[in-house]
## 1
Amino acid sequence: MSDLRPKTDTVSLTVPAAKRRGSGRVGRVRWYVYLLLVLAVVACVFPLYFMFIVATTDTATATSLPPRLIPGGNFFALAAHVFEIVPFLRSIVNSLIVALSLAVGQALFCSLAGYAFAKLRFPGRNVLFTFVVLTMTVPAQLSVIPQYMIISALEWVDTLQALIVPGLASAFGIFWMRQHISSSVSDELLQAAKIDGANSWVIFWRIVFPVVRPAAFVLSLLGFVSAWNDFLWPFIVLKSPDMFTVQIAIKALQSQRNVDLGLAMSGAFLATIPLIVAFIFVGRRMVAGIMDGAFKG
Amino acid sequence: MSSTQSSISRYSARRKDGVSRGIRESIPERFAPYVYIAPFFVIFAIFGLLPLLFTFYVALFDWNPIGDHEFVGFANFSRLLGDSRFWNALVNTLGIFLISTIPQLIIALFLAHLLNHARLRAANFFRMAMLVPYITSVAATTIVFAQIFDKNYGLLNWLLSLVGIPDINWLATNYGSWVVVSVMVIWRWFGYNTLLYLAALQAIPRDMYEAASVDGATGWKQFQHITIPSLRPVIIFTVVTSTIGGLQVFTEPLLVSPETGLTCGAARQCQTLALFLYEQGFGQYAFGYGSAIGVVLFVIVVVIALINFFLSTRMKGGQ
């Protein structure tokens, strides 16, 4: 069909402006590019699909060979069983509390700090910012034992604030917000507001935050995802099933894997599906946010 | 009250403008930046810096969770250096790091190159699909991959059997279990890194490719002479983040099979340093010995940071 069009360079000149705006290589996209990309998509999505298949079948079917590739009808029975064995609903609520608190907290505290580092002048600014960046390179995991001792001294073991408070402001988030604020908020505007007598707090809420709200939103999304998926730290500080986040609940289900494989998969699937559904709506903004990040050129 | 305050600052701003910029702000304004950055520093001091320093302290003691401790000097470290479990975990960590990072970054680079077409259809769909593994939790991922690699009922062994390869007991050997863990790490991160590379690629001016096309440079030549050189900074960045991430691999080896537990197999086939630290600290309740492992991890991180600093300054100098 497309052969009706003349295959000359004029084609690229007649492409609508909207299509030409994208950057990248020019020229025709060969068929094998699509083939390889589709293979990559299959690789990305297949494990989730496989999770769903096992989550809908009984163990005997799940372990039969050749492997089944069509979902069975057992999902609701297994899902109900998940809720019986562990307080899964409670775990979802716990995960939501932690992830939402961190999403909001990081957006707020990192935006404020990013604003200070990007637009305010104060003694020590550069040294302090360098320090913030340096903290990103030290993995928190290597000091989990003293971290646990501190949480224990605060009597926060087996509480959700043990998961929330340490993550409220992240170095990555500050770096991220500073980058966005310095590139998208004009100094003239801030100067004008200052001459009009607005103090920095008012300027932040009236001018800076509205401009960088999309970036703060993406930061919230990233914070939400990493809090929802975090494993090691909740695994250390949470002790009772009522306090478990979904990831720890999966671990509890998994210890029953030999009893019923579909059960662990159902738990994993139930823990994943909220993020997948949310991702369908905000995925584009997340992609744009990650690509818009600090690492161009 | 705030209007009074702002009118004062406006007044003083007018009066001293151009004379002494430094003191024209009212006093609360001078401290405001510190208040805005304070949350991070307070939180980091309590939950980041203090534990880090405390790691060095606790590592010098025989310390149990109840709080009983006895100073032992460097005994934990000398014991660690003679502990074959430590060397095993170190080798596993480095092995998993190598066979997960290198293929992962090559795949990401390749996919970013494919995605970097001005006229690619469904570009947003492809980009979003690349992020699906990133938003899936490690715990869920691990259960799925453990099933795919299962020695009796696994999808992979079944596929291999179709071409006549007998069943492989992946988790039984070091190399086999490294492959299993690495596949999970690669799966989770290649899409994210693809997007980082793609962002850097799209910042390359289009004229460069156009000029190359005019000169007759084809796909591979363009890749070699335009793409790779422009990506150097982001490649360094992803190597550093993958390295830091690689030192922390924990959940995959812990959950890859429920029978293997904290050692990731009877022979500790895939026990990483992070998992060994956890085993000593929270499985054996040896806080001092566990902290010594933390100190060693810290030294490794510093060495890597120095190597990276050296390499990146040398690259800048070379350009």
Note: Chain A is about 70% helix and 0% strand.
## 2
Amino acid sequence: MIPELGLVCLILALMMALVLAFVAPIGLINPKASFLQSLARPAAFGQCFFVLLSFLTLMRSFVQDDFSVQYIAQNSNANLPTIYKFCALWGAHEGSLLLWALILTLWTLAVALYSRKLPTNMAVSVMAVLGAISVGFLVLLLQTSNPFLRLLPFAANEGADLNPLLQDPGFVLHPPFLYMGYVGFAVPFAFAISALIFKDSKMWSVYARPFALLAWAFLTLGITLGSWWAYYELGWGGWWFWDPVENASFMPWLVGAALGHALLVSRQDTAFNTWGILLALSAFILSLIGTFLVRSGVVSSVHAFASDPLRGTFILCFLAIVIFFSFILFVSRTTGHSQKMYWLSRESWILLGNMIFFVATCTVLLGTLYPIMIEVLFEERLSVGPPYFNAVFVPIMMPLLLLMALAPHLQWRENRAALFWLKIKKHILVFALGLVAIAYLLRHLPFLTLLGLAVGLWVIWGTLFKLIIDWKNNGFRLPPVQRWGMILAHLGLGIAVLGMSLTTSLSIEREMKIAPGENVNIEGYLFTFQAIQPIQGSNYEGLQGHFTIEKDAKKLTLYPEKRFFIPRNMPMTETAISPGLWRDFYIALGERLDDGSWTVRFYIKPFVRWIWLGGILIAMGAFISSLVCFRNTFRGAK
Amino acid sequence: MSLLTLRHKLWRFVPALFLGTLLWFLWKGLVVEHPQTNHEMAFPAFSLGDVRTGHQPRSLADLKGQISIVHIWASWCGICVKEHEEWLRIKEKWPHSLVGIVYRDESDKVLNILAKKGDPYNYLLDDMSGSLGLDLGITGTPETFIVDKEGVIRFHHMGPVTQKTFEATFLPIIEKLNKDNA
Amino acid sequence: MRHHAVIIFFLAVFLLPSQGFTVEQQFVFENTCQQQDFDNLLKEIRCVTCPNQNIADSNAPVAKAMQEEIFQRLQKGESALSIREYLLSHYGDYIFYRPLMKKQTWLLWGGPFLMFFFGLIFCLKTLITAKRAA
């Protein structure tokens, strides 16, 4: 009964979405039917309500172990801990698509709540575009990915269990935040489409900006969580693999970063308007491309959902329609007039930075799709992995990192070179001295490490210098809240870059064969394998190792585990990490050998936490900017 | 429309072209059949012992002279163990030279399975290190090869084989090879 | 009393932790050059059984077999280049995560830098026309 209710709710939501997308806009076209415009807001509320209800019914069925529903039988188990029964909802294709639809309707709701403060035709058209996207996804759900399908008359006795890799706290947070991010880019997309339809050159960017920043903030957090989770879950000490699915989330992030900056400039400069529209369209289109890549089976990835050509075809058709309409509008309705732009100005540097972001995105897209291209054209198999991406992505991003430390010192419009030099002279001088000192102290490190260190410090110092200048100019008080967005975000990126380069060069890994009672000395730390004992969980049994790490009278204890999940007949390694600001200790159990000893991997990873601390700072900065933007843009009732 | 604006508009079509190509590749990627790397390769040289005790070691010379089906498997591979019964029936129905390769496995576990379920293999090579598997370019277990009289691999099948698959895909190739020889 | 001593003696012998003689590191080379080659190869070679992992990170049997094979070949003094040739001849291009430089991958390797170049031209053009429009 309850699952059927869920299905009915989806159908009702679809009807609401159809009204929103196709009925309400009639009011814009036909002046006689202008009352139809007032249907938009209620329809937006309605679709959100019904999708939420549908979502909750599925969740209830999960928690109640209703194995007559096929999706639940495939992804859950009676012995699964309750928290993971909640998350198992988004553990596979159908449920995660329902989550996608829910988050889309939530963003539409957010726009609807602010709709009274927007010009009417913009409000209705933006919600209509969002409604149209909802229609696409709800039809996809109902036609090809119904999570409420029943296994009747023979309901399963027991579920196949959630993939053990996903039975982890990281799984509670990572998908929702990620989806909030790249689904959220539908909002600036809708604003851009509205701007193209009504040939509005300015206001769209003002209203789109807070939403774009908020979506980007969520995406930053989602990617950071994903990287951190992969690090401790997969057992190899890696935090980014340029996997196609990772790239699918990274490309909208890059474009989203460019978009945030472009919308900042759009208010001042209409040349940026065209550019801003292009970025807003691209961000969401990349989200859709990502959705396609993940669910269609064209790329092989550890993350990919089980592939089904029918679903892939459906998503591709939807993607094609979106691309087609976006570009017809873009080509026919943008003007491309530009105002005077000075070479030495904040706008021109942001333009350069945006160009770099865009080229970097195209590079990642090229690398991700190249195996498909080669297979289609030459019937050969090719792999494009981390060696390629690292070799190509890093040099392209370097100029961006160099620019971003100095760009905040530039004013809008014209800057006199002499004055600019005066401003940044101290910054560069201090940096150069500091760099020489550090390079001398660390001269034994490889050149690339020092380069990464230098670039990270350049960005950090540049941002701090700007903070100091602002503090001085503000009468030795803290700068106003709107500054903090930029400062935290730029600082975060510098810290993350520093972490990435240091951990890549300085990490130590040893794979050892070791028995209980034995110890090994790695870089001055004494790792002792104390004991191994059996453990039991609700749906697994396993062995837990007890290790100690000692140096200079300080001692740490770690408990890595080897779990065997009974329902899926699958072994899993549960790593043990001792996190630290300056270094992580990381131990993963391998296999038990015949003589009672184990293969164990020991890692010492310096500065790896800086990567995620940096990511969190970027997200914080983006959240602050977005909230300030919401307050400023929507202040006062219309 | 002045010439300048026309050029401006033409430039706008560049991204459209790019996106059209992108969509075409995504579509093709969805429908393309994964290439079967069926380029013919000589069976690599080897010199391995038989898993079963009391049997002599074998080399490539033993393989030549007749059409053989070479099947690589292991006792730790669940699918292979399930598939074993299929091979027993295949050997009964269509007796051909069936050579097994045991991949990185323990001989007592293998002998256990053979004792319990049956032994369809003419001989069973013990690839302890896995280097024969690498020479053959395997991507996992189970995999099966058809090798002709001169020791050239004519067919490489990845994944388990059922009687139906054997009848549909393997037999036609074997029959063709027989005809070519006669 | 003597009984106790004997029991304690036997317990001590069996419960004392064994010496660290059996602790050994997997895949150790004396030559740091070889160690470097080994680490690099393991990160660049794709695990053929897994959806998307290198053989350093994979638990699959074929990956392990490759690790051991590479280890032994390097120990015997074989060059990294020759090992790559060996794997290439038996598996094909796709086994390397770093795409080989050939006609078909020209666009892959050159593309990003070409795009960067065109991007710069675009920026310059925008700045120049912006100035002219003023």
Note: Strands of chain A lie at 508-514, 519-522, 525-536, 540-551, 554-558, 561-565, 570-574, 576-578, 583-592, 598-606.
